[in-house]
Structure formats: C-alpha cells, structure tokens
Design goal:
Elements lengths: L18 E3 H9 L10 E2 L16 E3 L6 E4 L5 E5 L4 H8 L4 E2 L11 H6 L7 H4 L6 E7 L5 E5 L4 H7 L8 E8 L1 E2 L5 E8 L2 H14 L2 E6 L11 E8 L14 E2 L11 H16 L5 E3 L1 H5 L5 E2 L10 E8 L1 H17 L8 E5 L14 E9 L3 H16 L3 E2 L9 H7 L3 H7 L7 H5 L1 H14 L1
Parallel strand pairs: 1-3, 2-3, 14-16
Antiparallel strand pairs: 4-5, 5-9, 6-10, 7-8, 7-9, 11-13, 11-15, 12-13, 12-18, 17-19, 17-20, 18-19
Helix pairs in contact: 9-10
Amino acid sequence: MTAERFGSFGRATLPAPRVIAANDAIALLKGRAAKNGSLLGYGNGRSYGDSCQNEAGSVVDMRPLNRIRAFNVETGVLDADAGVLLSDIIAHAAPYGFFPAVVPGTQFVTLGGAIANDVHGKNHHRRGTFGCHVVSFTLLRSDGRSYRCSDASNARLFRATIGGMGLTGLILSASIRLMRVPSLDIVEKATPFRDLGEFFDLAEAADQANEYAVAWIDQLAASHGRGRGLLFTGNHAEHGSHKASRAGGRLSVPFQPPFNVLNRPFLTAFNAAYRWKKGRSPAPRQVGYQGFFFPLDGVGDWNRLYGPKGLFQHQSVVPEDAARRAVPALLEAARRAGQGSFLTVLKRFGTVRSPALLSFPRPGFTLTLDFPNRGEKTLALLRELDRITVEAGGAVNPYKDARMGAETFAASFPEWQRLEALRDPAFMSDFWARTAKKLDVRRGTVEAAE
C-alpha cells in the first residue's frame, strides 16, 4: 500500500504514516485492545484536509469492505458496506430508476465517508444533506460492541456519527434511501449573471423551480466584470438514460508537475473559455449525469495540477442576510492577495435540517475557493477568509480544511463539545487534535485555575 494512496486529496499535508487493514482494526476493536487515539477510518481519500489523517496513530483502510448487500427496488432502500463507492451505488440502482438523493462533487467517495462528513450537493434546498437519507448504520466502538444506530435506536450515536468525521467509531455498513428519478440524464440550463447582486436576485427563484442549482463565479474578473458568472440549474430528464456510464474518464495527470500549472494566465484564459462555452446558449440542454454532477472525475489525479505542495480549499457558509456583504468581501480578499481560484462555486443552502449533531450546511450561501499552496502567503489569505466568515456569523467547512485555528472551529461549531463527549477514545484525527482537543485542554486549564 503506497503512502500517497492514504493521503489527503489536497496534498498539502503528509500522507498517513501507518495503515491498518479493516479486518485487523475490527479484531482490535472487538477484542477491546485498541489504544486511545490509535485509529481513524479512511475511505477513498477525497477529503481535502487532515480530517482523514491520524499522524499519531493509524488510518483504517475501509475500501475492501465494498459489498452491496441488498436493494429494495420498491422503496429504494439500499444496504451496503461502508467502503462501497458512490459510483457503485449509482451503477447498481440506476437500472431500477433510482439515484442517490444527495451527491457531492465526486462519485469517488465511500458510503462511510459520505455519512461521516454529512456531504451536501446541488440540491440542499430540497433534499438537505446526505445524512437526511440515512436509515441506519452499524457502528463498532472500542468497547467491543456493535451498535445498530438509527433515529429511533441509539439515537445520540446516530446523530453524532453523521457529520462526526469518523470520530465515534468504525462505520461497518449502512442503509440509505435513494430517490426515484425518471432518468439519470439532466436537463441543464446556464443563465449568465453580470454581478453578484444579480445572482442573489436569481437564487431563490432558481431553487424553487429546480431540483439542482449552483453558480460558477469568474473569480479573476475585474472592474465592470467583477462578480460575473453562470447560474446552472437542472432537473432529471423525463426521457433519458437509465444506465450508469463508465465512472471516471480517459484523461489523467500521469505525473506530478514540478510547479503549479494553474497559474494566473492559465486561469484567466480558462475562465473566459468556460464562460463562453457554457453561457453562449440560453436554451436548456440534456446532458449526462457525469458531466453535470462530477465534471472533474473525468480527469484522473487532477489535484496534481496544483503543484508538488498541493492545494488548500476554503468553503464557507454565511447567513442569507449577511451574504450580500460577506461573499463580495471574500472574493475581494482573494483578489487583493493576488491568489486565483481555479474552482469558485457559490450556491444557496436551504432550511432542511440534518439529523447530524455537527453539520456544516445551514441556511445561507456557501462559497468554495481553492488555491495552490504558496506557504505563508496562502495561509494568511485563508486566515483572512476565516475572519470574514466568522464575523458574518458563518462557518468554515472542517472536512475541506487543513489549517483552521481552534477559535475558528469553535465559532463555526459552538456545540463541538457534544461530539467530544460521544467521541470513541480509540479514534482521533489530525483535524480534531489541532482544533477541538486544543480547546478541550484550554477549557480544562481554565477550570483548574478557577
């Protein structure tokens, strides 16, 4: 097993130094022999930051546990091992007219990872997060017991594990409810907008009329073009394919370039070409689901384009009443820092509540930016983006993060102590050690002084 295979997708942190097979970890847990902080489940490594890393212990390779156990073609309820990929679930359910109710920006995530991160998609305004569609799961903890968790059974563990970033134990299998769709194809419409004000005026109506809605921002546009972009809306086509297409594509980045390929001249040219190609026709068009939901899955190892130091992704959410101030401020901070974002995505979260104890999506607008790792220059920008977000009453996404401070995490998730109280002592991540555990130590120091 190569070290790179068990790294973070952002590649700005070191890969896991130790890996343990799922069956060996299961034996340790059942035998009550797992040491404190020694384990962390690892799916397919699509988390951008260090929430999937455990430098002080080992990560557990869950991919071999990848069996789809059962599928009810009447109700759409699917039972599968935690290591099965979303792409496999799509392929299995598609012929019966079902599709996952929520999909993130890649289909190469495991079922367990989607639950642990409570991932969201382009239809949060209608379907909420992935956790909203979890029926139950089996969780193995270091007391040697397997817990069947649902909204009605072991409910506290159920809510803590969804969005709990793998810290409550090892998810072995899960049952999820898929949604019935007329086809996998999507009728997509691209609507250009001149600036962010026009986008905000369009956003609510777009959500009400469509299953899916997301905007692309030309982050490098200056002067009169500042804040321009394209609003993509989509719905499943009434007549289209019921067959899953081949996961991934033929293109790939076969080796690591010695420098960042995604420099400013490239990004400027790419943004202009993308805006022209996608926005040239106002008419809806029918497209395959792969291109609509997972465009970057068609290029293998595309994260290598950011150079050998990797990338940082920053995803924030701010309340709706603060968005018209905060989102332009976030984009302006990146421009002032001279940092270009290859992927700049803006979308509106709805009011559907997740069952998760800690869940990133909440009502408002979420902005995603990514930057090549240029050391302290990039870290300073990210701290400024954190500040703008927190002052607006928002939150920074922990499973996209590799460097946020403990204070930013606490401001984003003020109920973090409830997860710490239910965390399995055998499980730890670099993210949790960097944020929550530091807060816990400080709290203990203050209480002792009092």
